[in-house]
User: Fold STAS domain-containing protein from Oryza punctata.
Amino acid sequence: MGTEASSDDGHHRLRASSASSRHLHGVGGASAAEVNLSARRPFAEKLWSELAETFFPDDPFRGFGALPPARRAWSALKYFVPALDWAPRYGLAKFKYDLLAGITIASLAIPQGISYARLANLPPIIGLYSSFVPPLLYAVFGSSNNLAVGTVAAASLLLASIIETEVTADENPQLYMQLFYTAAFFTGLFQTALGVFRLGLIVDFLSRSTITGFMGGTAMIIILQQFKGLLGMKHFTTKTDIISVLHSTYHYRHEVQCELPVQFHHWKWQSAVLGICFLLFLLSSKHLRKKLPKLFWVSAIAPFMVVVIGGVFAFLVKGDEHGIPIVGDLKKGLNPLSISQLTFQSRHMKTAVKAGLLSGILALAEGIAVGRSLAMVKNEQIDGNKEMIAFGIMNIAGSFTSCYLTTGPFSKSAVNFHAGCKTPMSNVVMSVCIMLVLLFLAPLFKYTPLVALSSIIVVAMIGLIKVKEFCHLYKVDKFDFCICMVAFLGVVFFTMVTGLSASVGLSVVRALLYVARPTTCKLGNIAGSETFRDVKQYPQAKSIPGILLLQLGSPIYFINAGYLRERILRWVEDEDSLCKSIGHDLQYVILDLGGVTSVDNSGVGMLLEVHKSLERRGITIALTNPRLEVTEKLVLSGYVRDILGDEWVFLTVKDAITACRYALQMSRSKGEDEV
Amino acid sequence: MGTEASSDDGHHRLRASSASSRHLHGVGGASAAEVNLSARRPFAEKLWSELAETFFPDDPFRGFGALPPARRAWSALKYFVPALDWAPRYGLAKFKYDLLAGITIASLAIPQGISYARLANLPPIIGLYSSFVPPLLYAVFGSSNNLAVGTVAAASLLLASIIETEVTADENPQLYMQLFYTAAFFTGLFQTALGVFRLGLIVDFLSRSTITGFMGGTAMIIILQQFKGLLGMKHFTTKTDIISVLHSTYHYRHEVQCELPVQFHHWKWQSAVLGICFLLFLLSSKHLRKKLPKLFWVSAIAPFMVVVIGGVFAFLVKGDEHGIPIVGDLKKGLNPLSISQLTFQSRHMKTAVKAGLLSGILALAEGIAVGRSLAMVKNEQIDGNKEMIAFGIMNIAGSFTSCYLTTGPFSKSAVNFHAGCKTPMSNVVMSVCIMLVLLFLAPLFKYTPLVALSSIIVVAMIGLIKVKEFCHLYKVDKFDFCICMVAFLGVVFFTMVTGLSASVGLSVVRALLYVARPTTCKLGNIAGSETFRDVKQYPQAKSIPGILLLQLGSPIYFINAGYLRERILRWVEDEDSLCKSIGHDLQYVILDLGGVTSVDNSGVGMLLEVHKSLERRGITIALTNPRLEVTEKLVLSGYVRDILGDEWVFLTVKDAITACRYALQMSRSKGEDEV
Assistant:
């Protein structure tokens, strides 16, 4: 095989004795160049291979078969509990890195935990609780070495916006919190179920464009929500859309202005100035990171510094009495059990389930995408379905221990990655740090100014509005841009759920449209070669008089069978009138099925109809290069054997053309003889 | 072009000066063999061509552009009103055929109209009304020469089953009828809208398997419904599922038995005997048609004969007094206007809209499928979207003139076709016949025994349970068989809507699964040729050491991008360990994109990720034969130009292999030099 591929095509050449005998393929020696029409896999094998491809596309148990039973069980256990895999080989060398990374992400986890809990209108301490238990569990069950577990802004706001349709935090804080725990429980159940039943493909339905638009829109409305904190306001809307928020910002300013004109201005002024200072500091630390990537740790601990500096400042100037609202009391102590607080009353359950499923999908999409993209840099593998189980376990356990929804957020995981983490141990380190904070330092965070949290959120969110990505999408694919914009505008102007579902709906419609209208093209011969290509793409490609060569792409299903029939007949008509204009008859239509990956009952029926229709016009049909699955169906349905004839199925386009030409010449010379 | 395609591949051969310079393509003279990377259509052109393919797949206005404006307007008018096209050329020669066909289908329309109206629990006269106005309109606007318009069994039962959830015919016959008219009105609006907006592709979502199963199931429950007529029962369930119907049949027999034991037995006995006679007669006429296709007219007029004989018999023996229930009074006179009876109260509207849309889709699917399959035999063309408008107009007008839903039913159209109809004029003839019946003969049908109608329905329905087709599906495609069975069992055991929607849902899930899990395969060289084929399908195909050749099929979207990335990396890993075991390194991966008809933003991102991932392993990637649309996206996104390099895109697999081999040899000889 070290030499050039031989261009001897002796095997391909026809041994047709006569066109009318229709026995166009040779018998002996030509097997290499024929379509294997007897290839038929048993049903069980086919079903198994299809199920395996659908549900185990990453084939996690590859290579287990060769092991002895005990080793196999151990491998399977290691597959489900990855900690068993890395822990025995864990040593001080790795721990140094993980310790550093763990402390760094802990410094980020404290301000983020408090901020996002406030974003969800939850007591701030819940944010810290949520950074304690789930990371420990992820360290045991998770397969990503880079993911740092914690709460996320988008899902926090989504949960709040759904649960507030049932009850607001002001009306009944106890029930409000219970619904968050219950939602986290359902999220966990749902994620585990998806993982166990290998349904990771549901997450695939969130396309990049949808996620880009959704994240951008969410970041936008989260920033808008921060008006409350930045302007030191007390009353605010529970809605998330831009119009409600702007209206609320304006309306309550006015209202408060009337009642307490002077104090309001004081509040606003102090909070706003402090906010601007924090924003400038955070933005410049972020800018620094871009300029000098080695100083990433500055931007990593900047939020923590903002919290500390803000807290000290607020403590010194007694901020809460001078227009700088603070977080307020934080109780010392570890997570209390919340298992008894899960509420399964049918009245509230619907909301909790809805919130749980939607935020669960979102959290999965973010967590898995982050895990995968970081793993790719290190050339590691992430098993999406196993990750789902890990997320699910951590959320179920979280819902029992006063935590709300957690996943692997992008910002924290990236910091973890850059800080040099080696294993999930960094999550354990973070968890221990948070534990220490909860046990001893929590009350100190009482003085954290709300405006500090708001600025942290704003800066974290600005990076998520990816204007460049929008432009790129517009340039490359207008439809993807639409999908992205639907998500963005839907979130900004309506609700998060509306934006997300409209965008997913549009993506699915587009995918179905692609399936419904597959590309077909006429092939021509590229001069001086045996290559046949789309004449539209390669205008120099020449067609062969009397023979129409069509390439069908994509599977043939019920959805597109009708269209393909019309389209093929239209090609035939066009070609026919073209042929007639130069004094030929169209006599052969060759369908190149190389791009048809599968065919269903309607598809076979379509081929049959086209065949009959062409037969009535005196045109002969030939098929080339059907794939394995297509060949099976065509043979089983009797189309190839009983109607078309085996001899009209060819391995290559060239073979088909040769056969057609031979038959053409035979019939022409016969015609001349008769004349 | 009359000679063999030259096998000179000089243009393909590489002129690489050095592998490290990566300038692998030749410059001059080789343009014919290169992928045209500058091919980029303007956005407007691309959008237009995509919209045209999506909504005008049959390109109805083809060739209009060349005409002068006046002729063009006339052509357009003729397109919308096909009668203008055929009427001027219509003469006595054609009329002879249409007259015969029209009388034949009228003889079928009378018993079918009465039967199906009774199936829908409507007064029998409505069935005759529905065979008068709609055919006239179809003759003007319809484009099929073979379709015979009338009511259909499946849609009649569907309408009844939906409307009876709101009100039953016994409770409020007036409202019940009004809802039928209103439903027909919405059906018409919906069908017209679908046609105008060229949304015919919605009908494509009803796959052959779904329709086969649904029709079979419906036929089954319709036959079960006939127990009422065949056994001469008065009380019956309004539900359609097999369990309710059997239970009702048993239950009411028992009840009536207790109250009127003797009379009941008399009734049952007479009706049943008469029914069996009719059934035998109809079945044997059908059998005759199969044996002697020329005598099709016997089976065509057999139902009419059953009605006449039954009527005469019932009249003579005073059947209604002796256990043979009859149809009862039929009023003389043409359709009264019903436009004032349409009810748009929000209370009932929802039901009417639901009934209208569902039965409308079903009616369209049947009408268009029938029209197409009959047209195909005569080699005519049917424009699905135009047909929808014709159906829509005829249903709207029907709803104004006391008609309920009509379409082109299979049985009647087939009879029309076999009777030799030439144009839609046969519908006019039928319409005139029905008019005469309505004006003069209607009262005569008063004596038609219900059992005669039941036997007509049973025989018509038996043919719709296509056991052979079920077996065929089971043999060819197990999944299609499942889809079919879901429809069948759903209809039989639950409701018609359940069966239909479950089956459509399953079909769509399957289509999405196919999109989500496209086939990939490893290609190998078929010995003695330049052909590369799936090694699984052609075990004799040999792979090339150090080079992995993968073929991707189907479009690359967000739905399958994640899967394809995993799958490609898995192929690479498998091949890598295979290569290592024989002492090679895997150095090149060639992706054959010939089967990839389109790619979206996620797809391009996937290629980029795979590229980076392979680069980190020291593996070079090459693409072959990207199609027009894919090339555009790859170039626009910057992947080809900035990351991959133009020189790694090849026109054919052979070119790519040659280039890789050349580079391999260069690096090996370089390595040897260094040693």
